[in-house]
Amino acid sequence: xxKDHTNFFNSVYDVARLIPPGRVTSYGAIAHYLGSKGSAxxxxxxxxxxxxxxxVPAHRVVNRAGILTGKxxxxxxxxxxxxxxxxxxxxxxxxxxxxxxxxxxxxxxxAL
DNA sequence: AGTGTGACAAATG
DNA sequence: ACATTTGCCACAC
Length: 112
Prior knowledge:
Elements: H1 8-18, E1 25-26, H2 27-34, H3 40-50, E2 61-62, H4 79-87, E3 91-92, E4 95-96, H5 99-102, H6 106-109
Parallel strand pairs: 1-2
Antiparallel strand pairs: 3-4
The structure holds a DNA duplex.
């Protein structure tokens, strides 16, 4: 995990893949876990720049408020929200409701 | 090699 | 409380 951090992107993808089903995390949390707390934007950009990777559940990555900020980038459709709901995440108005229940923090869960 | 950007976040006005 | 601006750091051109 996150061994090939030759590119920050690679690390982001690794962490994103580690997100367990039914859970979500924030860009800042991933960035913080990677050591670059202030690079929250890079995390989101990683998905965008790389194009939605199939192995990378970008739909499980939301902003600090638990809002599906990037759902627009998934396309006109909303597989992002649909996926989350399928995982058991309550999403209303593009925003996660039970965020406290589904929030997954790598710095805590992967606390080394 | 420098500039611009970006699916955020926190700080002001 | 809400809206807007700055800061941030790594990648693409």
